[in-house]
Amino acid sequence: QVQLVESGGGLVQPGGSLRLSCAASGSIYSISAMSWHRQVPGKPRELVARITTIGSTTYGNFVKGRFTISRDNAKYTVYLQMNSLKPEDTAVYYCRIEAMGRDYWGQGTQVTVSS
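Structure (tokenized):
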């Protein structure tokens, strides 16, 4: 059984930073990619950032250089460093791991950007 545990969400002022972490545990192997997505009520979940095993990255258009995704393969962990946060970044952030031909999702962590 695979479990994803996210951490690092919270309340931050506009212009501030947060670092999200997602650690995978259990019987997991052959990870092909790890990513972060976000969702606000009434809107579809959208890709924030994705990183493959070889380090190739993809970012949502709205990121515009503010976020950086990274991974620690030895720890089965993916990170999302978010800088210059804006109120419109407020959402529940989910990590996703593509492994063994399946998608695994975390439970989500709330990020609120407000003064």
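The radius of gyration is 13 Å. The chain has no helices and eleven strands.
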